[in-house]
Amino acid sequence: SSTLLIVDDVLTTGASMEKQRAGRTNTIGAVIFARGDCPAWVKPLFAMEAQ
To answer: Is the full-model pTM beyond 0.90?
Structure first.
C-alpha cells in the first residue's frame, strides 16, 4: 500500500482537505499557509495565529 500526499496552498477551515481525504487510508497532508489550526495529519509550512 502506498501513501497519498494531499497538498493545498492555503488552509482555512480544513474542510477541503478533509473532503479529499474522506474514504482514503494512509494519507498525509501539507499546506503552504495555515490560517488557523490544522488537522493533526496536515503539516503547514507557515502558520498564522488564529484570531
So the answer is: no
